[in-house]
Amino acid sequence: MDKDNVLLDAVLNYVNESRTVRGLPPLRHLLRGLRNDENNCPLANALDAEVSNIHAVFHDENAAIMSASVWRTSVQSLNSAVLPYFLQKFVSIFDAGQLPELDIVELEPCGWGKCVERHSCCC
């Protein structure tokens, strides 16, 4: 198993820990996203949060507290949890373009306001 797969497996585990403790279903794979976009990167889409390279800002304080608890990190402010090392590393690698398989693919619209194929960007 190469180092990217090890990182992606660790990231998915951390994402699913946060999701399940908050009553959300676990994901089978990471969602696609946009580079350098705190509101639409793969982690933001998976966690339903705004994600920087250091923390995740959730919609409510309980989500931040629960996520920080399962991640064994701290709550930075009312609704912000510090990201574990592997999630911080993922943000840096994704934003640098080293995980193109997780980029949202821009496709021609089909005329119905959706992509020609089903991708996370609009479907």
Overall geometry comes to globular
Can you count the helices?
A: 4
Q: State the share of residues found in helices, binned by percent.
A: 25-40%
Low-confidence stretches: 115-123
Structural class category: alpha+beta
User: For the report, how would you describe the main beta sheet?
Assistant: 4 strands, antiparallel
Q: Average pLDDT value?
A: 87
The whole-angstrom Rg is 15 Å
Order of helices and strands: HHEEHEEH
Topology, number of strands = 4
Write out the strand line-up for the largest beta sheet, numbering strands in chain order: 1-2-4-3
When the domains are counted, the total is: 1
Q: Beta fraction of the residues?
A: 5-15%
Distance between the termini: 31 Å
Comma- or semicolon-separated keywords:
single chain; 123 residues; alpha+beta; four-stranded antiparallel sheet; 4 strands; 9% strand; disordered C terminus
Secondary structure elements and their pairing?
Elements: H1 3-21, H2 42-47, E1 50-51, E2 55-57, H3 61-71, E3 75-77, E4 80-82, H4 85-95
Antiparallel strand pairs: 1-2, 2-4, 3-4
Helix pairs in contact: 1-3, 1-4
